[in-house]
Amino acid sequence: MIVLSLLLVLVTLLGHLALWTWLYNRLHASGFSTGVVLALEKLTMVLVTVSAALLTVEMSSRRPFVSGAPWDGVDRLLMAYALACWIMLGRVVFKWIGQRSSPRDQSALISNHTERLTMKDHAGDRLIGRRSTRLAGAIPLNQILDVHFQHKTIRVENLPESLHGLRIAQLSDLHFTGQLTPRFFETVVHRANAWQPDLVCLTGDLVDKAACIDWIPETLGRLVARCGCYFILGNHDQRLPDVSRLRRALTDVGLEDLGGSAVIRTIAETPVLLAGNECPWFPPAPNLPRQAHAPGSVPIFSILLSHSPDQLPWARREGFNLMLSGHTHGGQIRFPLVGPVVCPSRFGVQYASGLYWEPPTLMHVNRGLSGVHPLRFGCPPEVTLLELQNEDWRP
Ligand SMILES: [Fe+2]
Questions:
Q1: From ligand 1's centre to the CA of 235, what distance in Å?
Q2: Which residues does 344 contact at the CB level (< 8 Å), separation at least 6?
């Protein structure tokens, strides 16, 4: 009986965590202002703790959910809440089984060569700026300095012949906070330049602290690409007191701002539409040039930079061929068998990282380089080189 009772408490608490994680993920996918998000985050933490304590006490009692006045109302409320927890846990298990039984389509990925740069071995403490980060970095299996440079060769539908072999370096979620020093990012930039990409795309969450804007000339300012370096901003950039100062600092070193805009560039004598969607944090979505959808003409090959993968439905509606995103950090902590749990998206962990083919759009979600919480387990930082191929790959 005691074992059964303990099991029931455990199942309910797991459902409780699933319910609040669901809410947490959606909160961080919303376009609420930073102050509102942080206030709601604190409130969430209090409610999670209080409701877990109340549930545990109630379910450990001799007659759970049954007692006389004056507690009848509270009992009924806790019963209803426990029921919601069980339903939520059932939903999570159902989705997990669904994902296991039908793995996502990875046929767009031709090859993936990963080069690990374990920076801890190379430059040690010079890469970490804070004592707390140094302590976190010393936790066994924490991968904050174990950067994976991933060269992914991908098949892209309707890629013009002239763009076959186009190389795009994607860097995302650098989070200049001071936890990692400029030296860390200089090393990353140096290694990314060694790929000799045609394009560089920065997909948001670049700078958290205003003082770190001064790092840009020596870090992101050194990025080199034959056909240009482009950027958009993310929700953490929104936290700066003066976002326009960040945009200016980036454009001053030669990066092009695609936030809420679209341009047509000629690459290998072929027009390519490059657009940036910073919704929901910096609306509106870009107005696309008429040439991109001229009736009767062949659509221009199009690439979208969007911080959040939640803009995938918009990208599909607009017919984008390729979409580059970040924001999720791959979940930062991936549990064996379970995978990521926390993912700031209205789709939960569905688009945590990697390639997603949802016609007509192929989306790549980058795990990012850093974060405000210096913890990464089973989810190393990522810099990606996407090499586009146009061979007929549909089964
Ligand atoms: Fe981020």
A1: 7
A2: 24, 25, 27, 28, 29, 308, 327, 328
Pairing of strands 167-171, 199-203: parallel
Range of the domain at 40: 2-101
Q: How far is the centre of ligand 1, averaged over its atoms, from the C-alpha of 171 (Å)?
A: 11
Q: Which of these three, 101, 126, 142, is where a domain ends?
A: 101
**Interhelix angle 34-60/72-101, nearest 10 degrees:** 110
* pTM: predicted TM-score of the whole model, two decimal places: 0.90
- As a whole number of angstroms, the distance between CA 133 and CA 145 comes to 11
pLDDT digits (tens, 9 = 90+) for 60-94: 776 666 655 555 667 778 888 888 888 999 998 98
Higher local confidence (pLDDT), 211 or 70 = 211
Task: With beta carbons less than 8 A apart as the criterion, state whether 161 and 390 touch.
Answer: yes
Give the domain-ending residue among 101, 121, 156: 101
Q: Quick one: pLDDT at residue 278?
A: 98
What is the rounded CA–CA span in Å between residue 316 and residue 339? 27
80 Cα: distance to centroid of ligand 1 (angstroms): 35
Statement to judge: residues 61 and 140 lie in one domain: no
- Phi-psi bin for 348: left (phi > 0), alpha (psi -120 to 50), beta? left
Q: Tell how far the Cα of 368 is from the centroid of ligand 1, in angstroms.
A: 7
Ligand 1 centroid vs 205 CA: distance in angstroms?
5
